[in-house]
Structure formats: C-alpha cells, structure tokens
Amino acid sequence: MATLADIGLAAAINILSAFVFFVVFAVLRLQPFNDRVYFPKWYLKGLRTSPARGGPFARKFVNLDFRSYIKFLNWMPDALKMPEQELIEHAGLDSAVYLRIYLLGLKIFVPMALLAWTILVPVNYTNNTLELEARYNNVTSSDIDKLSISNIPQASNRFWAHIIMAYVFTFWTCYVLRKEYETVALMRLQFLASERRRADQFSVLVRNVPPDPDESVSELVEHFFLVNHPDHYLTHQVVYNANKLAELVKKKKKMQNWLDYHQLKYTRNNSKRPLTKTGFLGLCGNQVDALDHYTLEVEKLSKEIAAEREKVASDPKSIMPAAFVSFKTRWGAAVCAQTQQCRNPTLWLTDWAPEPRDVYWPNLAIPYVSLTIRRLIMAVAFFFLTFFFMIPIAFVQSLASLDGIEKVAPFLRPIIDIGFIKSFIQGFLPGIALKLFLIFLPTILMIMSRFEGFISLSSLERRSATRYYLFNFVNVFLGSIIAGSAFQQLNSFIHQSPSEIPKTIGMAIPQRATFFITYIMVDGWAGIAAEILMLKPLIIYHLKNFFLVKTEKDREEAMDPGSIGFNTGEPQIQFYFLLGLVYATVTPALLPFILVFFGLAYVVFRHQIINVYNQEYESAAAFWPDVHHRVIVALVVSQLLLFGLMATKQAANSTPFIIALPVLTIYFHMFCKGRFEPAFVRYPLQEAMMKDTLERAREPHVNLKSFLQNAYLHPVFKSADDDDEDDDDVDEKWDNESVLVPTKRSSRRNTPLPSRISTTSSPSLPEVHEDSQP
Amino acid sequence: MATLADIGLAAAINILSAFVFFVVFAVLRLQPFNDRVYFPKWYLKGLRTSPARGGPFARKFVNLDFRSYIKFLNWMPDALKMPEQELIEHAGLDSAVYLRIYLLGLKIFVPMALLAWTILVPVNYTNNTLELEARYNNVTSSDIDKLSISNIPQASNRFWAHIIMAYVFTFWTCYVLRKEYETVALMRLQFLASERRRADQFSVLVRNVPPDPDESVSELVEHFFLVNHPDHYLTHQVVYNANKLAELVKKKKKMQNWLDYHQLKYTRNNSKRPLTKTGFLGLCGNQVDALDHYTLEVEKLSKEIAAEREKVASDPKSIMPAAFVSFKTRWGAAVCAQTQQCRNPTLWLTDWAPEPRDVYWPNLAIPYVSLTIRRLIMAVAFFFLTFFFMIPIAFVQSLASLDGIEKVAPFLRPIIDIGFIKSFIQGFLPGIALKLFLIFLPTILMIMSRFEGFISLSSLERRSATRYYLFNFVNVFLGSIIAGSAFQQLNSFIHQSPSEIPKTIGMAIPQRATFFITYIMVDGWAGIAAEILMLKPLIIYHLKNFFLVKTEKDREEAMDPGSIGFNTGEPQIQFYFLLGLVYATVTPALLPFILVFFGLAYVVFRHQIINVYNQEYESAAAFWPDVHHRVIVALVVSQLLLFGLMATKQAANSTPFIIALPVLTIYFHMFCKGRFEPAFVRYPLQEAMMKDTLERAREPHVNLKSFLQNAYLHPVFKSADDDDEDDDDVDEKWDNESVLVPTKRSSRRNTPLPSRISTTSSPSLPEVHEDSQP
C-alpha cells in the first residue's frame, strides 16, 4: 500500500518530466529549422513558407531572439484562442469533435470532483475504521485510503451518501452526454449541409456485382442502374485491383529515396563513388556501385509499373465486381445507399461511398464472400489476443511489486529497502511495464481490422479503437485490479457466479486506487506532455532533411505531421472516463488527477490539431456514437462494481437501491440511440432534397458528370502523372470508358425482364399519365 | 420415477381420448346442421351453401347416410391431397408456411430418431450402470432410463458416441433449417411478385408528423411529400382517432343482439312480453320491458354514433399526427418506407403500411412519444410475469407428485397406493396442472403487446409468440426441470456460476424425460385431437343459431371460423423442437412421441386450414425469421445442456469437443440472418421496378388514385353503410377531402425552404439538363 509520500514523489517526478518536456518543446519550436516539424499544418495549408532566407545564416537555424524564450508557455493560450467554428474550417469536423471528448471529460468530472470533495470526502474521512484496523488487526493503510470508502465501517448508514451520490453522478453524466450527443449531431448535420459539393455526396459503392457471361462488370453496372434508378443514375467508376501496381509504385519510391541519398552523398563528397551491398538493408550481399545499382533498379521498376498499368487497364480479371456509382442528385444517392437493390441480399450491395481520400483501396479488392469468414477469424483471434496477452502483464506486475522482487531476487532486498528506490518501484514500474506492453498493440489491432476488410480508413480506425478499448478494459483495468491483488484468482474467477464477480472486483477496487493514480500520472501527464514534443517526427524529419532532401518539394514530403490517431487516442480517453466514473464514489481522491489529465490533454491536442496534425480524411464525426456508447459502458460498469463493493460492506438495507441505476442507464442509452444515432448513419431525404434544390437554383448549369467522372479513381492512377509522362493515353482511356456501351448481351438468361429498355441510349420510360393531379 | 407401465397407461389413455375425439368429430362433421362449424372456409369463399332445403326435414339436421360414417378417418387423406400451390391460393401464404413448420419438425426429427435408435439406444442399453446402482445403492430407475444416457458409467469412452451424434444432429438441423429458410424466402418473394395490385404495395405509414400552427396534418403531409418525393407522391389518407366511435358501434351491435334475442323469444311465445333487468347482465336492477328497453338503447346509440361520427370528421383534434401515404409506383413506396425522411429521426417516421385488414386500428391513435416508455414498462412487467408465475406452478407440481400428496394429505395414502390411481396421478396431473395455468396466458400476453402499441395484427401476434415462447422456456421447460427435482434449488440457482448452471440443469434432464413424455401425450396428442372438434365455436354457433339468427346473413355472422392463432400455436411447436433437440442425445426414447405429435398436428392443422380457419390477414410469411431463430436457440440450449451433463459425467477427455458446437451454430445463424432475413424485412428496388414496369405495360391506363383513395379508411367508416343510411355525406366528405388544398401558411417559420414549390398545384421542378447522356 503506497503512502501519501510515495504518491507525492511520483507526482513530483511526473510533473517535473512534464515540465521538462514543455521547456524542451518551447526551445525546439522556436528554432526555425524545426519549423516544419512543429507547424506543418500551416505549411500544408500554404499559409506559411520556409523561414525568411534573407537573414544571417545562423538565424535560419537558431532563434536568437531571447525574448521569445521567456514566455515559454505562450502556446497554451494561443491554442485556446481559435474559436470552434474557425477550428472546424481549419482542421475539419473530426478534429473539432475529437477535442470535444476532452471537454466532455471536463464537463462531467469538474462538478463531480467538487461534489465528491465537499460531500463524500468528509463523510469518508470522519471515521476511524482504518485506524482501528491498524491498531487491532495490524493492517496498514495509506492516507489516500482514509479519504476513500474503505474508511467507512461495515453496515454503516453512511453508505446512503455514496448511493445518493451514485445517482447524482449518473444523472449528471447522462445529462451531459445527452446534451453533447445533441450538439454533435447538430454540428454534423450543419457541417454536411454547409459543405460544398463533394463526390461522396453523389456516390454509392456497389459491391458483389454478380458475374455475367455476356457483359463486363462496367456494362452490367450501367444497365442495372439505368433500369432500377432510371431518373437518377449518372455515371459509374469500376474498381480496379491495383494493389500490385500500388506496391510497385511504393517500391520504386523507396529505391528513388536510396538513389537520392547516394546522389546527395556523392555531391557532398565527390572523392569516391558510393558503394552498397545488394542484400538486406545494404548490410550483406555483393558490393556494387550504389548510383548505378539504384538507377538500374528505378528504371526496371518504371518498366514493370508501365507493364502492370497496361495489364490492369486491359485485363478484365483485374476489374473487381464492385463499382462507385454516381447519381444526378443527392436524393438519388441517398435512396440507393439506403435500400436493397436485388432479391438476393448478398448481391448488388450498396452503401455510402466513403470520401475519396478516406477509401482504403487495398481492401476493395477483397471478394465479398470471404468477409464473413474473415470477421469470424478475427473475432476468435481477438479473443485469444485479449485473454492470453494478460499472462505476461500479470507476471511483470507481480514482479514489480516489492514482495515479488524480494521473492525473485532476495539479494536486492537492501537496495529496495532504501526509501527512495522503494517509492520509485511502487510509483513507476507497474505503469511503465504496462505501457511498454501496450506500445505495439495498436499496430496489431490495425492489421487485424485491415484483414477484416473494412473499406474506409475511418471505419478501420473506429474498429481498432473498439478493440483497443476492450483490450484495455480486460487487461489494464480488470487485469490490474485482479492480477494485482491476486493473480491466482483469475482461474477461479471464471467459475464464479455472476453475482460474485462484481463483489470480487468491487472489493479490490479501493485498494488499487494508488496504482491507478500513478498510472494516470505516467500515462496521462508525462505521456501527454511528451506528445507535444513530436520526438519521432522530429528525428525522422531531420534525418530525411539531411540525407534525402534536394528540393523544396522533397522537404515538403519529409514532413510527417501525422494525425490524431483516433484508434489509440480515443480508447485512452475512454480509459480515463472509466477510471473517473468507477472511482468517483469509491476514492474521490483520484478525480483531481483525472481532471489534470483532461485539461492538459485538451490544451495539448488543441495545439497539435491547430499547428501539426493533418487529418487524412473527414468522416464528419462519425465516431461519436462509439464515444457515447463507451462512456455509457463505463457508467454501467461503475454501477455494477459499486453494487459489488456495497454488497461486501454488508450495507444490506441500502445496496438494493443501486440495481435501478444500470436499468435506467441502459434505457437512457437506448433512448439516445434512437434519437441521435440515425444522424450518424443515415442521410435524411429531406436534407438531400433541400441541398439539391438549393444547388439547382444557384448553379443550374453545372457539369456534374465531369466533376464526378474521376473522383473515385485509384490514387495510383491519379498520381501517375507525377511519376510518368507516358500515361496520358491511359488517363484518356479512363475518361472514355464510361460512354454508353451498347449491350453485347446475346441471351436474356441472366437479365431481369425490363433490362432490354437499357439498350436504347436514353432511359426514357413511358410516363404513366394520371388522370388527376394530387 | 415412472415405470414403463405408467407411461404405457398414460399413452393408452391419451391415445384413447384422441381416438374418441376423432370419432366424435367424424360423427359431428357429417351432420348438416354442423356444416357451418366444420366447413366455414368454404362458405366464406362462397363455394358452399347451406344444405339442400328440398329433402325431408330430418335430413336437414341429421345425416342418415350410414355409409359415410364407416370411413370416419376419411378426412385425413383428404386434408393431405391439396397441393401446396393450391393451398396458397386457397388459404394464403401465411397458412401454407405455417404448415411447413410441422413439416420442418418431421424433416428434422425423422432421420434423427432413426439414427438415435440405431446408434445411441444400443450404446446406452448395453450397459448395466443402473442395474448396479439399483443393486448396491438402492436407487430405482425406470426402463426408459435404461435407454438413456444415465445408463452409461462415469467417464466412459462411450460418450464419444453422444458427442459425435450431437455434431451429426446439429449439422442435420442446420442443413434442414437453411434449406427451409431458402425455400420460404423464395416462396415469399414469388408470392409478393405474383400478387395482384394491392394497396399496401403502394403505401407507407407516416407517424409523428410534427405539429404545425399554420397547416392541418393533411395539408402538411401533402406538402412534405410533394416536396421530398415530387415524382412519386400520389395521395394520402390521414388517420382518425375513431376508437370511441368503434366502441359505440360495437356496443350498438351488442344491444342489437339482445334486441334480436328478445324479439325471437317473443315471436316463439307470444303470450307474454319478455322482461329484463337493467343492471349487470340483466340479473339485477329494475325490471323493464325488454323489447322497449333495447329498442330505445339501440336508437340512443345510433344517435350517439351519428354525433360522434360528425365530431371525428370535423374536429381537428381527432386527426392523429399520422397518415397513410400512397405513391404512384411500388418503387416510390419502397424508397420512402426504407429511408429516413427528416433530420430529426423521431419525426416523419415512415414504415411499410400493413395490409388494410392487418392494421390494428386502436393503436394508430397512440402518440409515438409514449411508445418507448410503453415498451420499457412492458419489458419490466413481462419480467415479473415470467418469474413470479413460476411459484404457483412449482407449488402445484410439487403437490402433484406422490410424495407431495402424501405429505399434504396423509389420509389419502390408501387411495394413492392403488396402482391405477398412482399411475394416473403420475401420468396426468402434472401436465394438466401446467396446462390449466397456461390457458389464460396468451390473452394476457396479447393485451401486453397491444399496450406496447404495435400497429398490425401480425406484429402483435409475433410479439406475443416471442413472449409466450420465452415464458414457456423459463417456466415450463426450466421450471419443470428444476422445480420438479428440487424447488429449493431455485434460489441458490441465481447465485450459481455460469458454468454451474448448465451442469445443474443438464444433470436433471435425463430424470425428467418421463415427465415430458406424459406432457407431450396430453398436450401434443390429445390436445391436438381436441382442436379438430372445434368445441367452443360449435357451442357458440348453436347458441347463436338458436337465440339470435333470423336471416341467412345472421347465420353467416354466427360462424366463428377462428384463425391459426400464431401467438399460441407457434410457441407450442417450438417447445417440441426444444424438447426434441435437448433429448435427442440424452433420452432418444422421447423422439417417437414427438414424431407422433408433428405428424398428427400436421394433418389436423392442414385439415383445419383447408376447411375451417379464416386468416384475418396476410403477412406473406413474415414470421419465418422468428421461427428459424427460435429453433436455433433450442439447438444452442441443447448443446449447452449436453455440455453441462457431460461435465457431470466426468467425461473430461471428450466434453471440450462440444464447445465448438454453439460457436458454429451461432455463426450459422448470423450467416442465415444476413443471407435470408432481408427477404422478410425489406423490399428490393429491383423487384419493385420490375413489377411496376410489367404493370405499366399491361395496364397503362389504370386509375391508381381511385384504387388507393379509400384503401386505408378506418373500417368503422367503411362498414357504416351497413348500419346507417345517413352517412353518405360523410363518405363523400372523405372522398373530397384529399383534393389539393392551397396552403394556408402565413409564415415560413416551420417549413423548410423549398416548401413554397408545393403551393403550385403541380409539382414540376425545373429539370437539370445534363449536357451528356449517361
């Protein structure tokens, strides 16, 4: 049991390191040669160019204006200044709403912390249970525990205070959640309504086009939609399996980088031609002349790319049974995306097309039939990942406890007994061990999501975030609580009754408060402060800048602003929601630590979003239902655990009153789901019609077809002109491709009856003349 | 533990009673004066008229042709003769598919029974565990148990046979289920495609029309759909709150019946005027002249009805914020029903309109906002109903056991010890006690569903069926297994671990086989045979015929053919699926009893559907996903219980192989859900377009508007001309009501911008002229 002094030390260390990070950041960001690392967003927007070239040489790299160093925390108010509307325009709705998650944390926990400290802490503190226990049973407890529910005697009437507070906290959380959901839904709808014309508003992704012996995929798609959406269909773009091509382009780029590196090296040191080895990473294999070797490689790849490009364009096998279909109106697209097209529900599957830059192209080539199997495999794999990853964590944590170390390595006892080291081990090691384990996890989860076949980056990230949260919940939260107190419980845990489980966990919760406090300080204070340093991009930028950059354009490419990283960031925030809600009634002493996290993270991420991150896509806050859902889960978990804890405290006359809470919370969730979620998954026809009508009135003669024609071309074809000059004909081919192809159908075997209508060039069905106007 | 002799006796009793029912049925149905009770379907179809009037008087009432009595089981082959296609035309798809549930039972269990008897029974029988136990531990067991898994020694390798058979049974069940789902989905689609023009194909029910200060609901609906579905909107019909009116009409009908009854009485006995009392059921209160009293009442009600009708038609408050909106094409209706209309997902809610005769009118008047609360209340109420209903059943059952009776009433011991009575108590009482309890349940569940606010009869019945099944599962199945063996276990049960529960139940299952066998015989054999007698309709018909019938039309109304009763029938079948699947591996001796049920019920219900039942609505087999889902649930339950049973048998090396089964089964369910369920909940646009196009080609000048105008008028207005003559003007009013009303809107506060377009009479939006044809 860590004492207040231990926590004080850990806090001091973490505050100090956060402070150091901020100072270093303040120094680094003012240096002109780091400008592109700390302000890439502005460069990408074209609002900032490289630092003035005119000044003295040193000025270009080092900021010698000492006045600017004095106000080293100046960036904080700057970050807070930009109003939200401007932020949405500057960085997109996703980023703006992402910041609202931190605000949500503050909105929920500031009043909660105030209430808890004014009511619960006095109620807890004015007992002497722990003192008595310490005197008679020789049970030691820390000062933190004196502020917690542990200090209340068994079967005390004071538990009513905790139950009433649990109700108050639940209602407050739900109230804030509801208001926030409403605000975000409105923001999303306004954002969608105010957006300028975008390809995804008019487009639908069709998958699983059935094979047809008479017609190509492109013809089939055209005929199908001309028949079934005659008034709305405009054009379409088939999906090519260009994964191999994309890989070749990537490989060529890598070779080009090596070539640039060696050329630069040669320019700087003309005396000897650079050499390289052909083997792995240039470390083994035959030694050859680097310049010749890489020039050859690049040329070879260029040829391969040209051949592959030719093949993709001409080979019908490289056309996937999928297409992006565009409509004349948003209304038509909304209708098509939200209805079933074909009698067989696994054919002609339509869904909203993601924003073009949001499309994850490699997965479009996955045949739809394998998707369910992939999902099953990944569900099983994730189950094993979650439950077997637990063993090493628990092992390390049991080592990192004082007893564990003394048992494993008794010779260390004299060192451990030194007060400072003891505090260090207790305050730091468990958190770090956990953190190290978790560093590699997001990548694994992202690979799993990719394998599952999601077709947009945003859905990939959302899926990974869900899994990451589940993982955190099972391993970090439950794992720390149970394994920390007794790893042996784990096995018996599976065989416990459902009413026993909350008791076991609930009982262990107050004891683990100090552990989670140190965890918050390491992960949530120092970790967030380190984020602003951008250490990895900084190093990579300077390495690239030194070895590869020849032109201004290269320097632009060397910037790696990164993005929010929803798949790791959001589960992290959610973990703090979980901790906060669980400990709000149990150990209110934990709340201030969480408040510091939310406040700090809000400022840091607002700064990063304004100055650094370059969001890859815009999903218009499609992630909010997930955020909301997970806070609700945390709320229900906190209620169940409080119930379990109370049950062990023999507060029999007050405990049953907690049962109504989860029921009410779940009902609240269902209400919110019905009321607000549709704004995130559907597109109301009224909105579509309104936007269509407005646009038609404003710009009656816009050529929509040319606008939509190439919106959903694989980026490898789009960026083609950057690399090669000989692909104009390919582009042209793409342009011509969707003029009307007369049907080559010889039999009607595979077509529904009305298909013959589509053989005429214009789909003008005879109108039924109603004899009365409505 | 019941012996083979007990079961034999019970079987004999039940077979005998079934036989008696059939003989009585054979005699009754041949009597001409019962013709309308046993062949009402043919009368309703107009294919059969009252028996010939020409013959001798006796002939009209009694069939004296003795040859027709000899072949008294003749109706069975007759019932099986009609081919399925004809059956669909004769009785609708719902009935035909309902019969397929019985066939499904036969398809699943016939091969299963054969396999189980050739493999499992020998494996079980060739052990002597029970003999040894009987010898050494003085544990008695019946002969049935010798054929069951109980006869296999602990930790025997023979359990492999059961596990392999569990796999075989699962795969067979899934195979049959899949094939059946496919067939039914196809039948549904073909039925929908081949149907002639029907109002519900073109109509959508809109609920929660927002209030508007400037426009009436009717105007608002018209403008909204003219704006948002300009090319497809045809007409609409607002929903009136005519519940009070319908009640008055019903009351008048009842009074009219009393009047008729007294008039008839007076005609038969002219000597004295009939008297009645004004109080409850004519039993108390002042004595008055019956004829005068009821004539007065009927006149008074007629006036009230006329006034109420006037009020409903003129008072804007009696118009609900809901409407049936009809479209020019099926495509337009399909689009509108399956998309969200408005930014606020709780306004302008659209869904398929049920078939006009399927609409449950009283619920259309429920404001939408109260629906979620009603659902929550009913969920809680159902929970309590399910878990508190359990106590009386368990109490009666424990009484009905021999020990129970001897304990409560020791003086009965000499009577009970008589062999015959002992068998009777064991074979009959538990089943009857249960059955009595369950008789009143469907009505309660139906009332609950109505309270929840479903708007179609079919959904009401489906919801009730789901609840009834859950109730049966918890109370009859689990209740009989656990309460029967030890009612005291129930309380401790809640506190058991999830891995203990299957063990507890699994262990008790083989012991309860004989109970369920008697249950099947009482409920499934004799009960089904009694169904064909139509006892209740027979009595009611003859009572009405005697007291009320004056004209041929009255006689027509006195017929009560009833309908299938999906809400009670389907859960009953499902219960047999559950029993069959659970006992297939444990006590195969139970399977033949279930086979007899399925076979007998199939024949009986086929006969009833052909000759008797008059289905109130046609939902085109919309219930099949529920049926499929519940069989899957039964399958998973059977697997879990087998797992639990095995775990208690110490078959440690073979038990883990069962775990894969539920996972595979659930995956199979998800696959089926994705593949087949959309056919039951959505309407593919391709189908809609095809049918539209075909119809347009065949009948280009049909006046759809006049066809749809009054399709969704409340039946109380439609049948108005039967009762009154003075309502022609009201009807006319209804006809005129939906001609175009120029907007009375003075402000634009509540309308979206494009609404002004709708002020012109024809919604001709300017077309955008694309410069290239797709």
3D architecture notes:
- Two copies of one chain form a homodimer.
- The first copy, chain A, is mostly helical.
- Helices cover 65% and strands 4% of the residues of chain A.
- Chain A is built from 39 helices and six strands.
- Chain A has a four-stranded antiparallel β-sheet with strand order 2-5-1-6. A two-stranded antiparallel sheet of chain A has the order 3-4.
- Chain A is globular and about 85 Å long.
- In chain A, 41% of the residues are buried.
- At the A-B interface, α13, β2, α33 and α35 of A face α13, β2, α16, α33 and α35 of B.
Describe the structure in brief:
The structure is a homodimer of 774-residue chains. By secondary structure, chain A is mostly helical. Helix content of chain A is 65%, strand content 4%.
Features:
homodimer; 774 residues; mainly alpha; two-stranded antiparallel sheet; 39 helices; 65% helix; disordered C terminus; membrane (chains A, B); CSC1/OSCA1-like_N (chains A, B); transmembrane helix (chains A, B)
Architecture blueprint of SSEs:
Two copies of one chain form a homodimer.
Chain A: H1 4-29, H2 35-38, H3 40-44, H4 57-61, H5 67-70, H6 75-81, H7 84-91, H8 93-125, H9 129-136, H10 143-146, H11 159-194, H12 199-202, E1 203-207, H13 217-228, E2 233-240, H14 243-268, E3 275-277, E4 287-289, H15 290-314, E5 319-327, H16 330-337, E6 349-352, H17 369-388, H18 390-400, H19 402-408, H20 413-416, H21 419-427, H22 429-439, H23 441-452, H24 457-486, H25 489-494, H26 500-508, H27 513-533, H28 535-547, H29 552-558, H30 566-586, H31 591-611, H32 624-648, H33 660-676, H34 678-681, H35 685-698, H36 704-709, H37 715-718, H38 720-723, H39 728-736
Antiparallel strand pairs in A: 1-5, 1-6, 2-5, 3-4
